[in-house]
Specification:
The complex is a heterodimer of chains A (about 325) and B (about 280). In chain A, about 35% of the residues lie in helices and about 25% in strands. Chain A has 11 helices and 12 strands. The longest helix of chain A is centred in the middle third of the chain and has 18 residues. Chain B is mainly alpha-helical and about 280 residues long. Chain B is elongated. The chains are: A alpha/beta (about 325), B mainly alpha (about 280). The interface between A and B is medium-sized, with 31 and 19 residues.
């Protein structure tokens, strides 16, 4: 239902996203993982046709068979809300503080589906019920500041679902929430994706949230997809050194106090300072000669899984010889 | 919690503005005397129970003239700032919504507007169409358009990068609908503050133009023209200059303080500083 091929985004300073490839079918749940600056939010924006001005987008984005690569604002607007919808990281700031939340949700219903204000209100109420908002009737006429973070995120999910999209992009929807609220939101997203046979693109740096929400996983670093595969498989046996590092950096209760939490040294460099070859070279620690200058090609690690790392190729060759 | 205490500026400004506006409204239905009735026998009368502030060189009641002049002044300011604010804000919203060359064109034309002082522009108009209050209104309104365009565009550009605007775009809303439903309500505060301040400026400009004889034409009273007429009588009857001067001062100070007070109250940067 959504197929992305060779998607690259370039700024004046250099490439920010390189050759991204992904597909999400109806009812499928794909996770995108990476630290800040890995390009995951920009990827989400590009799937909504909302890339900021001044960035150059190339490649193919096919949504329901329609080629949206290079499409204009008018074409994208016809797709937003009805084909692809999005929820945001900060439920605190993603709702207009001066509008009643019921009006915010009713708006696309009136605009896109041509419902009367009364029918739109009823649909908004139904959406509030579907997304598990407490006291939905009363909430409709409340302002964002009267709602808790979790309730607001549910309102935003209701808004995103208003026109029955076929793909929901969730950009770090749980980052700003308490752990137990986050858990409920991810459960809600999984339930909605199942019931509505809706694709879900779940972007997060929270590996626990990704593991309980998604079936497949895509790990990004510095604008490249470095590894992809079945979520459980990737988390159990990561192949790319970056994924290995990311998993090792997870805090665990069992090891609490016994050792320092391992970290990946440094942080993602700004786009103009990223190495030309493997984006992770310089922070990897297991580099070989060609890492810095030669871009690694994907190496199959399991059926449907691959990782882009020179070490894997070298290892595979070593095993074959 | 939000800062609840109102600043003294705001309170003093609001009281002065209420006073001036109250008097202006009252003048529509009631003045102590008909303002234009000439009584040459009773000229330069001192303050009395009959004429609270005395009479002028033609024996007209000063209080009545000042009251009607307040009404004229408020009307000019309201029309001029109103038109300037609506058009300017519309251009500002359009510039922020479209971006690119539309924004560039609107802002460069605005810069051109800034190059003309209101006084100069009004003198040009008066030369072409003859002096009148309408010329004053048009001149001040015209000068206000780029001011409001600039203020609203700057505020709107900030709001366009808020997450709720991204959310609205993601919900398929167009630029026009977003401007109306999300941008405009959220830039209302700076626009209202600017309007209050421009109100003060426009009262002053109207007074200056009428002083120069380009504004209100006799017998319509105007603070500025009363000042210019009293000028030659400064030694004979100084009160004829002092009272309109005080009226201009009160009105300008009132709107100025109100604008400052509103800005202090609505500017989140200042609120944060005060709390720190």
């Amino acid at each position: 239902m959504i197929e992305v091929e060779g998607l690259s985004i370039t700024s004046a300073a250099g490439p920010i996203l390189r050759d991204v490839r992904l597909h999400v079918a109806a009812g499928e749940r794909l996770g995108v993982v990476g630290e800040s600056g890995s390009g995951k939010t920009l990827l989400a924006m590009s799937l909504m046709g909302m890339v900021p001005d001044g960035l150059h987008v190339t490649g193919s984005i096919r949504i329901d068979g329609a080629e949206m690569g290079g499409a204009d604002e008018a074409a994208w607007r016809r797709l937003r809300a009805r084909r692809v919808a999005m929820i945001f990281q900060e439920p605190m700031s993603a709702l207009n503080p001066l509008r009643r939340v019921g009006d915010t949700v009713a708006e696309p219903l009136i605009r896109h589906l041509g419902l009367s204000p009364r029918a739109a209100r009823d649909k908004a109420l139904a959406l509030f019920e579907e997304t598990g908002i407490l006291g939905p009737e009363r909430r409709l006429s409340q302002y964002p500041h009267q709602l808790s973070g979790g309730q607001r995120q549910r309102v935003l999910i209701a808004l995103a679902l208003a026109c029955d999209p076929e793909l929901l992009i969730a950009d770090e929807p749980t980052t700003a929430l308490d752990a137990n609220v986050a858990l409920r939101i991810t459960r809600l997203l999984v339930r909605l994706a199942r019931e509505r046979r809706m694709g879900l693109l779940f972007i997060s740096h929270d590996l626990a949230a990704v593991s309980r929400t998604t079936e497949r996983l895509m790990v990004m670093y510095g604008g490249d997809v470095v590894e992809t595969g079945a979520t459980a498989e990737v988390l159990r046996a990561p192949a790319h050194p970056y994924t290995v590092g990311l998993l090792a950096a997870r805090p665990s209760l069992a090891a609490h106090g016994k050792r320092r939490l391992p970290t990946i040294p440094g942080s993602v460099p700004p786009p103009q300072e990223l190495p030309r070859g493997c984006r992770f070279s310089g922070r990897c620690g297991q580099e070989i000669a060609r890492c810095a200058d030669e871009r690694p090609q994907p190496v199959a690690t399991a059926p449907g899984s691959w990782a882009a790392c020179h070490l894997l190729r070298a290892r595979a060759k070593g095993a074959g010889a | 919690m939000r800062e609840r205490r109102l600043s003294p500026n705001l309170i003093i400004g609001a009281v002065l503005v209420a006073l001036v506006c109250g008097v202006a409204l009252l003048s529509v239905v009631w003045t102590p005397h008909p303002y234009a009735v000439i009584d040459v026998g009773g000229k330069f009368a001192p303050a009395s129970a009959e004429h609270w502030l005395g009479t002028d060189q033609l024996g007209r009641d000063l209080v009545s003239q000042l009251m009607v002049a307040a009404g004229n002044s408020m009307m000019v300011a309201l029309l001029a700032v109103g038109v300037g604010c609506v058009l300017g804000t519309a251009f500002g919203l359009l510039a922020a919504a479209r971006g690119g060359w539309t924004e560039e064109a609107i802002m460069r034309v605005s810069d051109l507007g800034f190059a003309f002082p209101a006084l100069l522009f009004a003198i040009m108009l008066a030369a072409a169409y003859g002096p009148s209050l309408s010329v004053v209104v048009v001149a001040i309104a015209f000068i206000n358009i780029p001011i409001f365009a600039r203020v609203s565009r700057a505020a709107a550009n900030q709001v366009w990068h808020r997450e709720y605007v991204y959310a609205a775009r993601a919900a398929g809303m167009g630029r026009f609908a977003i401007s109306r439903d999300h941008i405009l309500p959220n830039i209302a505060a700076p626009v209202i503050v600017q309007a209050t301040i421009e109100f003060a400026v426009s009262i002053l400009t109207e007074a200056a133009l009428s002083y120069l004889g380009l504004g209100a034409q006799p017998p319509a009273p105007s603070w500025g023209r009363m000042l210019s007429e009293a000028q030659t009588l400064m030694y004979l009857a100084p009160q004829l200059a002092i009272w309109p001067g005080l009226c201009i001062f009160t009105a300008v100070l009132g709107f100025g303080l109100l604008g400052d007070g509103l800005r202090d109250m609505t500017d989140p940067r200042l609120i944060r500083e005060r709390r720190a």
